[in-house]
Amino acid sequence: MNDTIVWTYPKRSLVSRFAAVAVRMVARPVIGMWARLPGLLWPFGALELFAAVLPAVRGVTRHPAKLPNCGGEWIVPESGRRSGVILYLHGGAFLVGGIRSHRRLVSRLVKATGVPALSLNYRQLPGSPASQSLADSLDGLKEIVASGVPVDQIVVVGDSAGAYLAVRTVLAAQRTGLGSPAGLGCLSPFFDPDPTFKLEMPNADKDPLFPPSALRTMWQQLLAAETDPTDLAGLREIVTVPSAVLAALPPVLIQVGAEEVLRPDSDCFAAYSSAAGGDVRLELYPGQVHVFHVAADILPEARIALSRMSAHITNCLAPARSVAA
């Protein structure tokens, strides 16, 4: 049995305090309105449209990728390239976000590690259920393997709903015989779509981004979208598999805001995996909002977290040797 390794960032910057207030005042009311009126014609694609103005960081190049049922983007370092690949799965509650909204975050990981990344525009609600999001994510892993990269030289990273897909993608790869990737990185992960347990926590209504109603509505949307009983049952795969299955995952690094409403998912995942001997580390960042990593341009905590995630990625790929750019 292993003890969960928990590390807590010891500071909180002034700018992060302002960011939390801004998120509570601007973003939370909009999400709350969606939770009350999910049937309206919400412009889910607007975030990707506006995110087009956000460039990748300097020092990387980009080119499009085409998968069987979705598109994506390769981000490659211009120098200091290492072997191995990052498969990045964006978050957005299975509704919003994509390669544009997360391009800057992914490019930071690529530049810091020297490891190329494939970022996916997997299918999402309301047009596609989570089972199709998972199928696209697994296709992304297969695409990398087909390009000549061994599965054990791939690190799967995701944030929020993307972290959920990252874990389920690795579980599917192991279960189907594709093999086990080198590592997993989870940023503000969402592991259990059923919000019941999380909303029983004392501070469930304190999250600056998500009102409790949003978690309930998202769960209802996920349930309603699935038509196959097997896919429906699979929605809670991460929290229903035996702890030994979680322990068999490759090394996992989880980073989460200490007060996030989703934090119980991280605590439980780490505890169950560690109890069965799994290699999992949990990092807590006090006062940070959900997926604070996307604000690395202004938040020092985000830069620290991405630096530590980059170190995790390179450690997972340690056997890989540097290759010429």
Fold and architecture overview:
By secondary structure, the protein is an alpha/beta fold. The protein is built from twelve helices and nine strands. Strands 1-9-8-7-6-4-5-3-2 form a nine-stranded mixed beta sheet, with helices on both faces. Helix 1 packs across helix 7, helix 3 packs across helix 12 and helix 4 crosses helix 5.
The N- and C-terminal alpha carbons lie at a distance of 42 Å
Radius of gyration: 18 Å
Counting copies of identical and different chains, the oligomeric state is: single chain
Task: Give the CATH superfamily.
Answer: Alpha/Beta hydrolase fold, catalytic domain
Structural class of the helix and strand makeup? alpha/beta
Mind summarizing the main beta sheet?
9 strands, mixed
Number of helices: 12
Query: For the record, what CATH class applies?
Result: Alpha Beta
Calculate the mean pLDDT score and round it. 93
State the helicity in percent bands.
40-55%
